[in-house]
Design a protein that fits this description.
Structural class: alpha+beta
Strand order of the largest sheet: 1-5-4
Order of helices and strands: HHEHHHEEHEEEEHEE
Helix content: 25-40%
Number of helices: 7
Number of strands: 9
Radius of gyration: 19 Å
Largest sheet: 3 strands, antiparallel
Length: about 200
């Protein structure tokens, strides 16, 4: 029970820090900042951001958390998945089971926001971590859209690794955790056989 409580607390903390759909999360608050702003972030958010930057570099930019405005433009963000009430000026209505393509001005504008080099982390564990938003915002039809990031592409894997760490440090002989498609299995089942996934 104690390990389960630790896992539950850990997963809640990760969600409250990294979620783009929880308005009070660190990432959601950072996303709402204008260009040129900075924000103090937790060591955990900084750790995941550094991992994201490393993966961004190792994939030659194919993994890019700063693509989030385009993800939202195309309707693949959590507000569509979870039915959030937030409406954006670029949203399109569903007709006959499909949605119209985004207007070109939004595609071109939001492409200017894709820039991981414009999101900079400074500081350390002793002094604290600061996330800087250096990417200029874009203005479309009089509305300013700031750069935004989404660490969700690695957050579940990070959470799974942290859960695995908790299991390994415990005396629990077997268990598993399913994190939205990422599954971690630990030890053996009650009948003594090993987990298969």
């Amino acid at each position: 029970d104690r390990v389960w409580e630790q896992i539950k607390e850990l997963l809640e903390e990760i969600d409250l820090l990294l979620s783009t759909s929880i308005e009070t999360s660190e990432i959601a608050r950072f996303n709402a900042l204008p260009a040129g702003a900075t924000m103090e972030i937790s060591p955990m958010t900084a750790e995941v951001f550094m991992m994201a930057c490393d993966i961004h570099e190792k994939t030659n930019g194919y993994f890019d958390p700063s693509v989030f405005p385009l993800v939202d433009l195309w309707g693949f963000s959590p507000r569509f998945t979870f039915g959030k009430d937030m409406i954006m000026p670029y949203d399109r209505e569903w007709k006959d089971g499909t949605r119209a393509l985004p207007e070109q001005k939004y595609i071109e504008g939001f492409l200017e926001l894709v820039n991981m080099d414009g999101i900079v982390l400074s500081g350390d564990e002793q002094t604290g971590y600061i996330l800087h938003k250096n990417t200029p915002s874009v203005m479309i039809d009089g509305i300013t859209y700031p750069a935004q990031i989404d660490l969700g592409g690695i957050a579940k894997g990070y959470a799974s690794d942290r859960v695995a760490e908790l299991y390994r440090q415990s005396d629990v002989t077997g268990g598993w955790a399913s994190l939205g498609g990422n599954v971690y299995a630990h030890g053996t089942k009650a009948n003594g056989s090993f987990w298969n996934g």
